[in-house]
Design brief:
This protein is mostly helical. It is 66% helix and 1% strand. Strands 1-2 form a two-stranded antiparallel ribbon.
């Protein structure tokens, strides 16, 4: 067996170990390309709903890259009890978009910043004290949540494949061609490449799809003209304002975000490391979500959370090395300090991204099903998983069913199947007898 050197590329499949920087950077860049568009998309949506200027939106995008990079580094290399020590990539959360689009026009963007500060601290504290309540989250509950996360992302991947939700040319022949080329290149590279190069199939597909998009003339470079080469982020560009209704709404969504983080952390440990996640890792992951989201308000930015896209990438490639993922975090920070770099990455067409992510998201579904299988197919577990997933996915496909509830309940649950799955699974796990009588004659 070949003896390993201090820096060895084979370490990419282990948490610890130094991978040669030239080999680590492509794997780190692959993670960033997989989440880049999803990281900045919530900024565009919320900024538009709140009536922010193009200059303010650009400033928030710059901040989003920096805070995502910082959050990823802390997840990889914990500070005190904050961080999991797992290869979790952080980014701006989509979970909060609907509630922010409701609160922003009513109270203003400054109230969003204040609510994120309060909610982030609440989630962070919950993470620190997770050992007192994590026992409520049984393995079958976490497995159901992971499966729900995977199913909820399938439509995101499909929307990207079609050209991006709301785009004028959605589902066009051009987008079908680009998505198909990217997906085919990913598959062929994975089949034909040797050794660890196989794990760069997503990066190869993205590059091939991007080149094809340039040749087809669908890449818009106009945004690069007025972009500064280097710029430091603004500190407190929006001073926090505190409104009780806004804080209550956002704190509830932070609780939902915490459930997604539990699912992501469980899925990553299961699919990437082949073991159960530890209580310490889950607690650190939740604490990082909360406290770094609170730190995000220093830059006037939105909450960040673990990115399921990257959990899917880890599940597919098995690349879990912390140093390797850290190179991606550094790239994100550089993309924030050098806006021209981030603007160039932003030209990546949605259809190209969709060609890669559609398979990654399916991997999360399979990971969730494997976790359910590891829990055992007792009648009790089947009842919890089947009912929670069917209600979560089914009810959120017809969101009008929640219109009889107060607005805050509708805002939290109507379009968030993960929240519904978690709530139903948690309740069932608490009320169903441990030795289920459902199977008795």
């Amino acid at each position: 067996m070949r003896q390993r050197t201090a820096a060895d590329v084979s370490y990419i499949y282990q948490l610890e170990g130094r991978v040669p920087i030239a080999k680590a950077v492509p794997f780190g860049l692959q993670h960033i390309l997989a989440m880049f568009v999803a990281n900045i998309a919530p900024i565009f949506i919320v900024a538009g709903a709140c009536g922010l200027s193009a200059k303010q939106s650009a400033m928030l995008i710059q901040s989003a890259m920096i805070i995502a990079g910082i959050g990823t580094l802390i997840q990889l290399f914990p500070v005190w009890k904050i961080g999991s020590g797992l290869p979790i990539v952080m980014g701006i959360s989509f979970t909060f978009v609907s509630v922010f689009c409701y609160l922003g026009p009513v109270y203003g963007y400054n109230s969003i910043v204040g609510a994120v500060l309060a909610g982030g601290i609440v989630e962070g504290v919950l993470g620190l004290f997770a050992k007192y309540w994590m026992k409520l989250i049984a393995p079958i509950v976490a497995a159901s949540v992971v499966t729900a996360i995977g199913f909820s992302l399938l439509s995101v991947g499909a929307s990207s494949f079609g050209g991006g939700s709301g785009s004028e040319d959605f589902g066009s022949v051009t987008n079908w061609i680009l998505g198909s080329i990217t997906l085919l290149c990913c598959l062929l590279f994975n089949i034909l490449a040797k050794s660890y190069w196989k794990q760069l199939s997503v990066l190869f597909g993205l590059v091939a799809g991007y080149i094809a998009a340039i040749c087809m003339g669908v890449v818009d470079f106009s945004s690069l003209k007025d972009t500064a080469v280097i710029a430091l982020p603004a500190i407190l560009p929006f001073k926090p304002e505190f409104h009780a209704n806004a804080i209550l709404s956002v704190v509830l969504i932070f609780l939902v975000s915490a459930t997604e983080t539990i699912g992501d952390t469980s899925a990553l440990a299961s699919s990437g490391l082949g073991r159960q996640v530890t209580e310490k890792e889950t607690a650190g992951s939740i604490a990082c979500d909360g406290f770094i989201s609170a730190l995000s308000t220093l830059f006037g930015c939105l909450p960040i959370t673990s990115f399921s896209q990257n959990v899917g990438l880890v599940a597919m490639t098995k690349v879990v090395n912390r140093f390797t993922i850290a190179t991606g975090a550094v790239i994100m920070i550089l993309a924030g300090i050098f806006p021209i770099f981030g603007a160039l990455l932003a030209t990546l067409p949605d259809a190209v991204l969709g060609g890669c992510t559609i398979m990654m998201f399916g991997t999360i579904v399979i990971s969730g099903l494997q976790m359910i299988g590891n829990c055992g197919f007792s009648q009790r577990n089947i009842t919890i998983a089947a009912l929670s997933i069917s209600m979560g996915i089914g009810f959120t496909q017809v969101p009008e069913i929640f219109q009889v509830f107060p607005k805050i309940v509708e805002t939290v649950f109507a379009e968030n199947c993960v929240a519904v799955v978690f709530l139903v699974a948690l309740i069932l796990n608490l009320v169903l007898p441990k030795e289920s009588k459902l199977s008795e004659k």
